[in-house]
Amino acid sequence: MQTGYDIDKRKLLSSLSHGSIFFSPLLLTIGIPLSVLFVSDDPVVKQNAREAINFHLNVWALGVVAGIIGFFWWTLILIPLIGVLGAILLIMTWIEPIFAILKSLNNPDQAFRYPFIFRIL
User: How far is CA 1 from each of CA 12, 40, 48, 93, 105, rounded to the nearest angstrom?
Assistant: First the structure.
């Protein structure tokens, strides 16, 4: 499929948006896809940046929920739930972005969509 957009630039910006979760747990992680969203005019890159922003917000929300539940760690019922939420958070923050980067590099004409997240943007 021939497009008017630079494929290498598309791959770089899409991968940078998805991989920004690895840079820092602070605002830098969401700042990179936000800047890519506002700077790029490529629709696939914009969609990848939106999806990365949604992913970051979901990871943060799950981290807050796990933190609130972790505050009540002395309750025996919540200890397995903390473990499950921790495992989900680990999978979300490590495996899914790597998968998204690989998909963005292998198929640059299609935006990657994370499974099982709430989409705000």
Answer: 19, 20, 18, 32, 15
